[in-house]
Structure formats: C-alpha cells, structure tokens
Amino acid sequence: MDRHLPFAGLHNFRDLGGYPTTDGRRVRPGRLYRSDSLGKLAPGTPDWDRFLTLGIGTVIDLRHPWEIDARGRVPEHPSFAYHNLSIEHRPYDQAALPPGTDPGPYLAERFMEVAEDGTKEIRRALELITESARSRTPLVFHCASGKDRTGELAALVLGLLGVDEPTIVEDFSLTELATPALLAEWSARNDGRTPAWPAFGRAPASVMRLFLTALKARYGSIEGYVEQALAMNATELAATLRAHLLDDAPATRPPLTYRRATDADAPALVRLRDTAALWQLARGIEQWKPGEKDEAHFRTRVAEGEVWLAYAGGHLTGACELWWTDPAAWGPRPPDAGYIHRLMTVPHTTPPGTGRALLAHAESRIRAASRPYARLDCLSSNPRLRAYYEKAGYTVVGEQPAKTDGTGSPYAVTLLEKRLG
Known about the structure:
Layout: E1 14-15, E2 25-27, E3 32-35, H1 46-53, E4 58-61, H2 65-71, E5 81-84, H3 103-117, H4 119-134, E6 139-142, H5 148-161, H6 165-173, H7 179-189, H8 205-219, H9 222-228, H10 234-245, E7 246-248, E8 256-260, H11 266-282, H12 295-304, E9 306-312, E10 315-323, H13 327-330, E11 337-345, H14 354-368, E12 373-379, H15 383-391, E13 395-403, E14 411-419
Parallel strand pairs: 3-6, 4-5, 4-6, 11-12
Antiparallel strand pairs: 1-3, 2-7, 8-9, 9-10, 10-11, 12-14, 13-14
Helix pairs in contact: 3-8, 4-10, 5-6, 6-8, 6-11, 8-9, 11-12
C-alpha cells in the first residue's frame, strides 16, 4: 500500500489508515487523510473527481488566511464542510532560511511554538476530527506542503490513537517521497529559482523526534499536552477516537503471489526501497537512505539477474533481487550460488511472514538453476538483521570489511550462506 494517493496536482495526499497501534489494532483506512494544499484542485478535472470519490465530509485548512488569498482554497461543494483553522501564529519563510540552518532543532522549535500559540485552533481541529469519527465520515486536513502544520496535527492524532513514536516519526518523514515534486512546484512559482535553504521541502526524522521529545519534556506526553494546554479530557478524547477510527488486525490475509519484474516496474521499486529506508531511519537504523538507488539500478538488476515482486490481494507487498554473481562481497566464485539482495517489504500493511516467503521464493529460483547455495550479506553494524537471517536458516561464514558498490565509501558486511536441500 502506497500511502500517497495518486493525483496529478497534489503531491502529498496520504491515507493515515493501516498504521498499527500498541494494543495490536490498526488505524482504519479511508477515514483520515492528510495533504498538501487542496487549493490546487479545480472542478472538472480528474483530480477533482478523484477527490470527490473519497467521500470526504470535512476539510480542515491549517494555512494562514493570506496564504489562502494567494493560493486559493478547496472549491466549494455540498458534500463537505470547510474550516480554516490557522494554527501557526508566527509565520516564517522556510525557503529564505540561511543554508546552514539545521532543520531538526529549528523546525522542532517552530512546532513547539505552534503547539503553544495555536491551542484554540488545534483544539477545534481535534473536535472536528472527533465529530467526523463519530459520524463515520472521512476527513482531510492540510496546509501548504502537507509537511509541518499537517505533520504536527497528524502526530497528535496518531498519538491519541495509540500509534507508537517511531511510526509517528515515520509518518512525518514520508513527505520525503514528495519532496522533489514540492521543490519543482516552488521553483515553477518562483521563476525557476532554487530555495536558499537546502532543507526546504524536506522532512528529516530528527524534526518530529525532537518535537515529541520537547512536548514530553514540557507536558509529560501527548495526552498531557491535550489536558494541560488544550483543556480537553484526553482520556475521553482518545477513547472516542479509538472506538471509531481503529480496527482489529485482520484475522486472515490473502495468499502471496509472485511476478518477475520488468523495466516498467523500476519506479515502483525505487519508491518501495525509499519507503523502507524511511521506516529504518525513523527507528534509528542507519542502513538505507532515500534516493540511493534510482530506476537505472533496478533496470540493470532486471537485465543482469532477476527481481521478484510479491503481491497480496493485488497490492505490492515486497520485492527482492537475485544475482548470479557478487564479486564485491564474495570475490570470484564458481557458479554454485544465487545471491539475494534488497529484500524489501511494504511497512505496516504487508502480511506477516512476507520477508521469509520472499526468501523462500528466491531460494526456489536458485534450486531451479541447480545451484546448491543461497548467499547474502548484511551490514556488520546491524545485528538485528543478521539475527533475522540466522533464524531463516542462514549461517555466518565470514566478514567482508571493505565492500563497495561504487556509490560511496567502503563498508563492512557480514557474509551469510544457506545450503539448499
């Protein structure tokens, strides 16, 4: 499941559904959306028709009135009510910030200003979300880029629903998938210029992590903020939201099916890897970074080896690469193995066991090629991943202290091997 819904003019429209809660439930899909400016919608266009099909009954616009005057608002329609709640009281120009400004502490401080200046508006937004939840009517909230003001409100709602902090951080950072489009849009509005601040349009995990740390330091928790700053009953509010916006985890899952990737799948593979990278970074795992592998990489892997996609119920849930040589990690070897790389699954919505199933599928392809070994490597600094592969039957057979893939500095990897029956 790609959280970004496809629109031509909206780049950061996302469904908050599917996130797991700490008690084993999940946020109900199709009920809460977050977005960049809906002022880009226009009646009579495919985007407008797509938006109306979502059945949204409430739109919350978090922008300043002057932003709405300059960029427009969502067109009026009898199917939904529109509310302008400007939660930011001290505007600033991100694009013009000095290049050396660290986005983590700078934006986290702005978020705290919003949390304390915009209490009236934030309270009203939570009331509207609660009313929408009770009436089982979808709701969307948005600002300009769908990043900061929208991200802050999303964090409060997800926290009240019982979503854990790493997932809240991850949700914020998913704007990174929309950053290139947001930058192109800004440049088109500004005579082709580039923002002075290199972090404009970015959503590093450190921003949300620092904001939540500051909020907890001052109020104890998100619930404490709701009680103390918003003068709301956080227990009742959370109970109402959870009663209407959470589902039990599905008891059964559709079976996995597999398809060999083609060149046309390269964009989906890039997006899957970048999404997995943001999941890792939100949890402090320094392994993958968004943007490291482009479409050309996956087209090369399709041409020189095999790339396999896994689907459940028609939705892409994972992928992996299968190579027939790997001299960078393993050196020159006889043709006795297949080498598994970039095992990726879709965070949160993938059926349990998808990673193991993809491994097994790759191993079946290696057997079919009459090769007795499956081999792979993982960063030596990632013991959690090493343990995952060991539980799947792989044995550590060595270390490669200076692997290089031609895109960066050498790095150390642990080599693992499995004898195939």
